[in-house]
User: Fold this.
Amino acid sequence: MRLGSLLFSVAAVASLLIATQGCAILGGTDSTKEEKLCTPGAYVFCRCADRTPGTKLCKEDAKSFDACMTDDSGECVGGEVDDPQTNEPIPPAGDDDDDEVPPGKASPLDSCPGKSTAVQPGADIKLEGDTSTATGDRKGRQGACAVGAGGNDHVYRLIPSGSGSLDVKVQGEGGLDPVAYVRSTCDDEESQVVCGPPSGNKLAQFKLNVVTGKEYFLFVDGASASAGKYVANLKLTTGSFCGDGKVDTNEACDDGNKVEDDGCSNDCKKVNGNPTTGGGCAEGGHPVDVWTGQTVTGSGSTNGYGNAWTAPSAACDTGLTNNYQDHIYAVTPHATGNLVVTLSAPAVGTLPNLMLSARRTCASATPATSNMCANNGGVGAGETMTFSVTKDTKVFVGVDGGGTTNNKGDYSISFRLQ
Ligand SMILES: [Ca+2]
Ligand SMILES: [Ca+2]
Ligand SMILES: [Ca+2]
Ligand SMILES: [Ca+2]
Assistant:
């Protein structure tokens, strides 16, 4: 109410000034500027056509939003309408006092997607509740958190506005012996990503790497059907990690997932597998990042790809047409030096008669020099090539068929920058 009376009581000039600034920030009257509307991953206020207040998530582009959602009935009925509060940031949970649920209304804590909770880096977030009045019963996946079966629980929909390590501590009081777990999909037990098991001192805790803009569903549950009051403390410390989708120092790759052998391993160190990006220049090549003194290993196969390089290298295969299938790597060296690429036998079976070649431009073999090629051995023999690379300038490496027969198949490869 204080804001309302302020707006109506101050001088008209001041009101006009506030309004004008508001428009400039939102880009409403000055569409020539690329203004940021919001902080990616943060929640802002919105209002539904039926006047219910809601929240919506700012997307990566800082200009658009997910659908406006209400706490208790999901997506707005009839869409969203403008309101003086629209696009105002929502403070982190625990700062406001509107946690109380009107009589007769179900609490968002009791069902998926849970109570929307902004998680801002560096903020101490305190979530207090009592599961003895909860109505939903979920449990952790097989393992330490499966003891949540039978005890009612609360669910929070966490939206981090930074990437980094999220520290979660849930302290039980009275009868509650807490377990806490996080899922990536609220109503899918199998999507659990971390478990804070019960402990002797009624403290369930864990750390979890989170990515800005993604949603995480935190369950505060009771072991052995216990229920009661709890205090959950959350703190997000920003930082880079394997799985944040960005290649950091000493990472060979980072595809942001937890799938092995899809072209980037879970530890971000190996490039095993045959991703679609290895099929040719149009997809940009299978990404590999190399750092001084480090060797990146990979396993792969040319079986699943087409013949992207018909003349792999002018130096290697002068003027000849090459019909063999190939796998193209896009290698980013993080220092100027020499790149050593080695092809060797696969884990199972014999290395086919394959060759290595490299290009400075993916689509053209012309500028390649003679050392950007290795085609010396036959079936079972490895190949090695060493050539100069420039810091942050991509080079393309093709594993291709060599010789005169049907040359394709499985191999191991390594990239070393020295
Ligand atoms: Ca439960
Ligand atoms: Ca990373
Ligand atoms: Ca992966
Ligand atoms: Ca080829």
User: Anything to note?
Assistant: The longest strand covers residues 229-238.
